[in-house]
């Protein structure tokens, strides 16, 4: 049985192995459209094929080899993602967010919730999307 599609789009870095791969497959299983980003094209394609086999998700998974330390490549990643899926809702960065260690082109925001139902933690947003929504 296929999961209900959420219409939400996630970009997952390091999706060619380990935690990034597991995260990407879990998001696909939950109905997300997922962009698999990583340095190695062949493992990314294998993850894309695995998502197709497990979740019939050929139209919901896009594999894009990328060096995330290259700011121009990151901008191209987001441009291709928006061209393909029309939006970006979530960016999962392989490494924990730390000031000064963000993917180029992303802006980190600290959520300082004080009440029981106010979110806390960090969120990463494409900087370009902030200027369009400002």
| Helix percentage range | 25-40%
- The run of helices and strands is EHEHEHEEEH
Radius of gyration: 15 Å
* Strand portion: 15-25%
| Structural class by helix and strand composition | alpha/beta
In one word, what is the shape? Answer: globular
- Number of DSSP E strands: 6
Which consecutive residue ranges, at least 5 long each, have pLDDT under 50? 97-102, 109-123, 126-134
Terminal residue distance: 40 Å
Task: Give the overall pLDDT as a whole number.
Answer: 76
Alpha plus pi helix count: 4
Enumerate the strands of the largest sheet in spatial order, edge to edge or round the barrel: 3-2-1-4
> What's the main sheet like?
4 strands, parallel
Written account of the structure:
The chain is 37% helix and 25% strand. The protein contains four helices and six strands. Helix 1 (18-29) packs parallel to helix 2.
From the structure above, extract its key features.
single chain, 134 residues, alpha/beta, two-stranded antiparallel sheet, 4 helices, 6 strands, 37% helix, 25% strand, disordered C terminus
Q: What is the structure about, briefly put?
A:
The chain has 134 residues and is α/β, with parallel strands linked by helices. The protein is built from 4 helices and 6 strands. Mean pLDDT is 76; it is low at 97-102, 109-123 and 126-134.
Q: How would the blueprint of this fold be written?
A:
Layout: E1 9-13, H1 18-29, E2 33-38, H2 41-55, E3 61-65, H3 71-85, E4 90-92, E5 106-112, E6 120-126, H4 127-133
Parallel strand pairs: 1-2, 1-4, 2-3
Antiparallel strand pairs: 5-6
Helix pairs in contact: 1-2
């Amino acid at each position: 049985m296929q999961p209900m599609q959420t219409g939400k789009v996630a970009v997952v870095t390091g999706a060619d192995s380990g935690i990034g791969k597991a995260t990407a497959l879990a998001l696909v299983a939950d109905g997300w459209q997922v962009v698999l980003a990583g340095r190695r094209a062949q493992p990314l394609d294998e993850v894309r094929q695995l998502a197709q086999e497990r979740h019939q998700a050929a139209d919901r998974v896009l594999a894009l080899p990328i060096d995330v330390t290259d700011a121009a490549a990151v901008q191209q990643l987001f441009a291709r993602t928006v061209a393909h899926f029309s939006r970006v809702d979530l960016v999962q960065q392989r490494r924990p967010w730390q000031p000064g260690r963000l993917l180029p082109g992303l802006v980190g925001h600290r959520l300082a919730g004080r009440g029981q139902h106010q979110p806390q933690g960090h969120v990463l947003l494409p900087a370009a999307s902030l200027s369009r929504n400002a």
